[in-house]
Structures are given as structure tokens and as C-alpha cells.
Amino acid sequence: MTPLGVPVSDLAKVAVASLVGTSSREHLHRTHPPQTAFFIARKIYAILTHPLRKFPGPFLCGISNAPYSYWFNGGRRDFIIKDLHEKYGPVVRIAPDELSFATPQSFRDIYGFRTAPHSTFPKSRFYDGSAFSSYGVHGIITARDPAEHAQMRRHLSHAFSERALREQEGLVAEIVDEFVKIVGNMGAEGKVVDFEWWLRCCMFDVTGSLAFGRGFDALKNGGQHPSLKFVVEAMKQLSLIDTMTRFPYLGKVFALFFARKLLKLLRGSAMHEEFALSIVRERIANPTTRPDILTRLQENLPPNTRLPDIQLATHVCEILIAGSDTSNTTMGTVFNYVLRDPSLYSRLTTTIRSHFSSYDKINALEAAKVEMLRSIIQESMRILPPVPGALNRLVPEGGDTVDGFFVPGGTYVTTQPLATALSPLYFDEPMKFKPERWERSSKGKDILEASQPFSLGPRGCLGQNLAWMEMNTILCKVFWKLDLELVNTDMDLHRDSKLDSLWDKPPLLIKVSERRD
């Protein structure tokens, strides 16, 4: 067994296969023994002279992508990398050409704005498999070229401006009220509510309404919408896609032995793309002043020009995925930790219910003033980062420095959100839920910039103000109107969650009733 509990034999077999390829190795051994020895010698020489050889990490990670893919497909990659940082330090070699960092400065160096003679680190190949990518079209999240992305961001910023947020508040409130009503009715019927699922449905409807200009009725239909099903399933397959990128020959094996599963995934992708395109074309054919993202995307363009239908569809598809799951994750984390602490729950509900004289008075502007709630949300995003996975970047040719370490060009680098935010180097009692560390009056020694849930720099989350508006509004309305009690108290978010590019979380079972005071 390795120090991380992974059978050495399993990893070693995959590592050897990835180094030389099973069929070619057997052929060389049977027909040309001298060539076999020469081939292996070349591999050993490459390992010993590799420019990343001086960075610490497990030996197998230095010779093969197998450990990384093993962890990724097992759903525990980021927890394992967190353990590696605790063992090896602030920088760890997690694959032959990939380094993981876990420091606040590395956030700034890898993702932040860089001035000459330094250049921005572009996104890695991981972002190539998005919706419509087979057509050569990229959206605001997956565009790898910095210049292309900068142009997109300037145009899309109008859809997330202060003016846009004010106009979109009514669209959000309408769906939030429906969510509160549905879970309240389920509680009145004596049903235990899985907030993990129903928050997902709520945010899918909210983001769909804002992005596509129409809701998906996921709340009304209990999530029975093909696009929601596809998004949930597709997000669980990104580890497989990443593995096939690292080991191209595995794609042929997968297609051979799992043809039915692959066909189902491809059909789901095609249906999702067709659905998005049909909505975009319908909106273009029937113009409206509805204050959603599609409307804003068609504004502020040069005269007699418009974005191609497929480009609009790509943007809104990416916004749908990024905007729905991340907010859902954070709010679920809020409910999980607040309901486990009776004192915190009592103080929060008292604060919210005294701040608003009635349910109808709750709006985004006033909800943002509840500082206790803001601290709870910030701590929730720290203890379970909404985007836990590696936001890989590629070091430009010639190399550059990351937190004092010179990294050769062509190296993939990332700052691990989970490893950094849960490090005792930066947070006192990092595994404890302590919202007070975010209060303005706090004099703790926590290094708060070690938590970057929205990332930073030129690729920082464009929709973070929208996310805050959504979360503040939903949480204020739920805690104002309903009394809640956590049922599955034996559930542990860190232990029971798995992750691909986003979280696959356990059910969050809650008893719901109308407030009694």
C-alpha cells in the first residue's frame, strides 16, 4: 500500500503501461530485446533529467499520469492532494508535467494580472471538452486564448452590471418564492426534504431563467428535465474525459467496451446543444425587452452586427452550469453547518427575522446588509470551496516564477482551493466552521486571502455579484419563513462527498415547518 492507501500494484501496472504502452512493450520484448533495453534506458534517463525532478511528490506521480487519473476517477482527488501538501509542503508534483501549489501567493501568481516581462498563464487543455467545442466554438469559461477571453469578458460584463442585477432581481425572486412554497408544503405534508436536490432544482430554474430567458420548471416537475439530467450526468464524466486526454489509447478501449454508455452521453450532449440553440433562435426571432442575460448579450454590439447563434448558445450553456451548481453547493453547506449548531441557528434566524418586518420586505439590497449571513456564506465557501477542482494553467514558454519557485515553460500549474483553504498554515482550526473569522471586528490570525472561491485576476468569476444576490435572497427568505431541523446528522460533507470538476454531494435531509414565533 502507498502512504495514501492505494495498492502499489494497481498504480504500478497502469504506470508501466502509460510509460511504454502494453502492446509495444510486448512486441519489443519478443522480437528485439536490445531495443527494449534501450527504450527503457531512455525512459529512465528522461525521468532523471526531467526539469521538474527537484519538486517533491510521490515517485509514481513523476513518471506517470496514472496516480492522478486514479484519484480523479475515484472522486477523492482533491482530498488526496490536500494530504500530499500536508506531507510534502507548499508545492507538490502530482503528474509528470504538473505541479500543485497551496499558498495564497500562488493564487496571485497563477491566476492574477501579470505585467511585463511576465505574461498571463493561459488555461490548459482540460477546458477543451465543453458544449459546442466540436464546432470550434468556446465560451467565456472555456476560451483558452487570453485575447479572445478578454474580448468576450468586455462584452459579457454588461450582462452582470449593477443595472442588470437590479433588473434581474424580480426574475430571481419569483423562482425563490416558488422554492420556499414547495419545500414548505412538503414539510406540512410530513415529508423530509432533500435540500441538496431541491436547491439544485431551484438554482437550475434561476440560472436558466436568467441565461436562456425561460425557466426549466425543474421545481414544478421535481427535476424532470432532460437538460438538468444531462448536466448532472455530464459533470460526473469529466474525470473520464480528462483520463482519456492523458491516455489517448484509452478512448478506443472505452468506445469498444462501453459503447452504450458513450452513446448515451453523446446523445445527451447533442440534445442539450440542440435545446440551447433552439431557445436562442426562438429569442432572436421574437425580440423581447426581458432583462435577462440573452437580452444583454445582444446589446452594445457594433451597428448591423450580432453574435452568431452558436456563440450565444455556448455562453449561456456555460453560465447555466457554472451558475447553478456552485451557488447550490454553497447554500447546502450553509444549511449543513448552521443546523448542526443550535446557538448559531438561533442567532442567525433572530438576526434575519428582526432585520425584516415581513417576508415581502426581503430584497437583495437589504439582504446584503445582514453581515452575519455574509460571514456564514464566506466560511461555507472556505470549508467546502464551490469549485474544488484544479483550475489548471499552462506556464508560458521560457518559464516563470510561482511563489518564489521557478517553473519551466510547458508545465501545468494550479493552486488547490481545498488544500489551501483547509491548511492550518493559514487558518486557525481549519476544519472547524467558524464564521466569526470573517467578521470585520475579528482580530484572528487567519490569512483570509487563502480562500478564493471566485478565483481572481482576468479569469475571476464574472458572475460573483449575481451569486451573492441569489444566495443572500434565498437564505434570508428560507430562514425568515421556515423552521428547519437536520435529519441525517451522521452525514459528513468532507467524508461523504465526491467530486469531479464539481461536487457530488450526499443528500441533505431536513425537516421543514412554518416558523412558530
UniProtKB/TrEMBL annotation:
Belongs to the cytochrome P450 family. It comes from the Eukaryota. SUPFAM superfamilies: Cytochrome P450. Its cofactor is heme. It comes from Polyplosphaeria fusca. Keywords: Heme, Iron, Metal-binding, Monooxygenase, Oxidoreductase. Heme binds at residue 461. One of its GO terms (molecular function) is heme binding. This is Cytochrome P450. InterPro entries: Cyt_P450, Cyt_P450_CS, Cyt_P450_E_grp-I, Cyt_P450_sf, Cytochrome_P450_monoxygenase. It holds the Pfam family p450.
